[in-house]
Amino acid sequence: MSGRRREVLELLRAAPGAVSIGAVAERLGIHPNTARFHLETLARSGHADRVHGAPDGPGRPPLLFTARREMDRGGPRNYRVLAELLADDLARADDPIAAAQDAGRRWGARVAGEVHVADGTEPAIVWLRDLLDDLGFAPEEPSVAGRGGAIGLRHCPFLDLVDTHGGMICALHEGLLESAMDGLPAPVAVEGLTPFATPDRCLVTLRIEAV
């Protein structure tokens, strides 16, 4: 967040009530258009709310802004400790690999349930490639030949945990991908995930069913 925008947000937080664009501009010594820009940006990002004041004459009521009363979502995040704790917990299961696969399958089922993909092989493979990209796997372009295919992965979003929990992390990802594709109405399935098929990439193998 820019220094000026943070000043605007701090002004809203300190105000006892909603503040107008003109008041923000006057208090910070900036042009009203600049104040409006920062206020609208704060509203779009969820840091502020737009409210309408009481009409003081003909025309629209004045547009006011107030800080949203919640924890600062723009602060730093650190999920590594949480990931390590969850991985340690999985490792205590009777069969850690199976537990990780089950967790991945639940994750994949939820992902597949939130999307609508057109029927057919190509839309399904494109969707899988986009999913891998969104999750941070840096996928290569899929290669398809006959009834098989593959997608190379150049990055692992949980790479920091691979040294200590590599088997579980790969099982989690394999379960995720298998379940996600099983939930699509398409003749494509994830046949497996090969960790470090080459030193710099993992490999997702695909099976394309006859239709």
Automatic annotation (TrEMBL):
<dbReference type="InterPro" id="IPR036388">
    <property type="entry name" value="WH-like_DNA-bd_sf"/>
</dbReference>
<protein>
    <submittedName>
        <fullName>ArsR family transcriptional regulator</fullName>
    </submittedName>
</protein>
<dbReference type="Pfam" id="PF12840">
    <property type="entry name" value="HTH_20"/>
</dbReference>
<dbReference type="InterPro" id="IPR036390">
    <property type="entry name" value="WH_DNA-bd_sf"/>
</dbReference>
